[in-house]
Amino acid sequence: MEAPTHPDHGGQGKPKRNWTLIVCVLILFIVLVNGSVAWWHTLILTPQLIGQNSAEKENQFELIRPDIAALEVNDFLEIQKTGTVSLTGLRTEMLALLNDPAVHGNYALYVEDLTTGAWMGLNEREKFFPASLAKLPIVVAIYKRIQDGMISPSDKIKLEATDIDSRFGTLGFVEPGAEYTIKDLIYYTLVQSDNTAARTLLNQLSLDDVMEARLAMGLDWPKEKDDVTKASVKEYANMFRS
What we know:
By secondary structure, the chain is mainly alpha-helical. The chain is built from 10 helices and 4 strands, in the order αααααββαββαααα.
């Protein structure tokens, strides 16, 4: 928090009376006291804001709300007990948006506040083809194998010609035989939604690996290893939460 700047209180030449100096000192004292009171008021009433400033300066929590991430565990648990979140306003806005005659198609929406568990949904249980969201269970299954010590993030894998898919991602334009680490393939899969990276990772898994990952996150049982079954946005929210 930056200290406020104050204008100079100087005058022309030297003060002719002692009381002028006394008045200046009193004014400075009042300004400092008011500033201190305002600072303590902010510190006592809005500790989240103080934590937010601290977290932003440290730049340690890019994907988490900084005011929540900066809290101590006990403080966070207390806020969970007493905090309330209303998503009614958001739901009203989303309904108005989707009911606009200019909007076409079928939509589903699910929002959850991870600090309180409050949630709001529109068609949240309707099933959709997950498209590239189907890559997430693949990565989860890979992480499970890493956790079990079956593979390492530094292991290198060659891209097979049958896995090259240029429809999405930069690896679709790489020559077969190029080597990438599992860590790199995870990055391409999640950040670029790279089809080739996802296919290559999938080849490192068995059907049981994929089934275990999907079932652990509440998704349907796949018939085949690369089976893309329909899922609701609420089901996929379980995966993002985990």
